[in-house]
Amino acid sequence: MERVPILKIGGVLLVSIQIDLHDQSVLALQEDLAERISATGAHGVVIDISAVEIVDSFIGRMFATIASISRLFDADTVVVGMRPAVAITLVELGLTLGGVRTALDLERGMRILRVLGQESGRIPAGDPTGLEWS
Amino acid sequence: MTASGPEELPIVSDEDVVRVRQAVRGYAQQVRLSLVDQTKLVTATSELARNTLVYGGGGSARIEVVTDNGREGIRASFQDEGPGIPDLTLALADGWSSGKGMGLGLSGARRLVDEFDLDTEVGRGTTVTVVKWKR
Amino acid sequence: MAGEAGHVHRLTELLRENADVLIGRWVESAAASTRGRSTSAELERDFRELFTAVLPVASGDGRDLSGNGYAEIRSLLEELSRTRARQNFSPAETASSVFALKEPVFQLVDEQNDQDLFRQVLGFSSLLDALGLWTFESYSRARESIIKEQSEQLLELTTPVVKLWEGVLAVPLVGTLDSARTQVVMEKLLEALVETGSEHAIIDITGVLAVDTQVAQHLLKTVVAARLMGAECTISGIRPQIAQTIVALGIEFGDIATKATLADALRHALRREGVDVVRRGDGVKR
């Protein structure tokens, strides 16, 4: 089974989904992420889905689940790069992402996490990028 | 209505669900469905293939190109010999599920396609057939 | 195309021998009805081609027109219908070009005074009827595809996505919105958000005459889809009548941002982008 790699950039964990996800890899990713957030104390998680061609209800629920898990560790989650066709389909499917934050691209997603981290004091003052912090 | 190129795929594992998705996308591209329609169809078939696997205990998918009055489309059928669906109205209602999940499977899939046909018998199994026409 | 197997089909022979005369008369009688939109030379060329394709099937009565034997004549007639449809001929004018071959053929057979030929020419007449009807049908099909093309072009023209500011896109919608058009707009707008990296979209419906439930639903879905992509979408220019319809239809706009005018929507988007628009103190135009 292919596993989705999780990269750490400063205080942020980056998950870039480049494969056609099947249900087992979705479950594995949720487990892996929980472990990594707990181990690293990351303040944010970015899930980049710009390469993802379909999001069905199972994958859609993964975003909400990951966001809930992150929240337990006091970390924010942003889903970035959703394609228009995917967004239209999700709306038609009747699926909301349960209040998960979204951003057009990775750069904006990182910016949102930085602002949220600074507002809540999870990124210490004197680290404007939030990248050195870990 | 004439049909061409039927393809049968087994659905007995997670990987098969992915394979069905990829096959459906291939067919959808072949008749040049718009990107949005391709995505809707592939998403619907992903839901249905998962239902076949999870609730039907496995089964098979049949995918083909269909034409009707010069219009082209894709038809996909999902068949299992599982327990069947005892209450259809309930199964097709939003937010209800007979197993895991939030029950978007059937009702959601129905909204994503142009034709939706469900044939089920308790103890015998379920067949769901969907068609998406080229706009 | 049964004909009389083994025998020479008399009519086919007669048509072949008198090809030039028949085509000449055919062109003459058809030219009267095309009123100068096709030159005689063009008609002559088209008809000669048709005539050549008709000869091998002249012994049939056209009942199995969809069969392989008629493939060539069918495709020639389709081509003719397409061209005629583009030249704004009516379907009747187009079909009568085919029927116009009857008269010269009947005349020729009449001169022969031959019972066999009379029988064969009846069959030939049915064939031409079938071919004429086929022309009629191909004409409608061609016409339909032209209309579809044109309405798609119109759609492109009437739904421009414009950039109002760095990061702010707008679609001014005008006229009557139907479900199909709204869907196209929705897709185009969302694509444009990604292409331009814009986080704000404004759907301005000042010029929209009426909104039904389906269209309102599509607008709402666009807003929700934009949100899923990480962008914000505002609907502006809801006219009083449309506001009443929306309320009467019981459509819930929920937490979706609506603004009275496009200007308000732009100001709202700019503020969200961190841009403030202020008037200079002296108020003098420069």
Describe this structure in words.
The complex is a heterotrimer of chains A (134), B (135) and C (286). In chain A, 43% of the residues lie in helices and 16% in strands. A 5-stranded mixed sheet of chain A has the order 1-2-3-4-5, with helices on both faces. Chain A has helices spanning 23-40, 57-72, 84-93, 106-119; strands at residues 6-9, 12-16, 44-48, 76-80, 101-103. Chain A has one domain: 2-Layer Sandwich (Transcription Regulator spoIIAA). In chain A, helix 1 packs parallel to helix 2. Chain B has one domain: Histidine kinase-like ATPase, C-terminal domain (Heat Shock Protein 90, 2-Layer Sandwich). Chain B has 4 helices and 5 strands. In chain B, strands 1-2-3-5-4 form a 5-stranded antiparallel sheet, with helices on one face. In chain B, helix 2 (35-54) packs antiparallel against helix 4. The longest helix of chain B is centred in the first third of the chain and has 20 residues, at 35-54. The two termini of chain B are 17 Å apart. With 286 residues, chain C is of the alpha/beta class. Chain C folds into 2 domains: 10-151, Histidine kinase N-terminal domain (Globin-like, Orthogonal Bundle); 162-273, Transcription Regulator spoIIAA. Chain C has helices at 10-17, 19-34, 40-54, 71-86, 91-99, 102-112, 115-158, 179-196, 213-228, 240-248, 262-273; strands spanning 162-165, 168-175, 200-208, 232-236, 258-259. A 5-stranded mixed sheet of chain C has the order 1-2-3-4-5, sandwiched between helices. The B-C interface holds B 34, 36, 70, 135 and C 141, 180, 187.
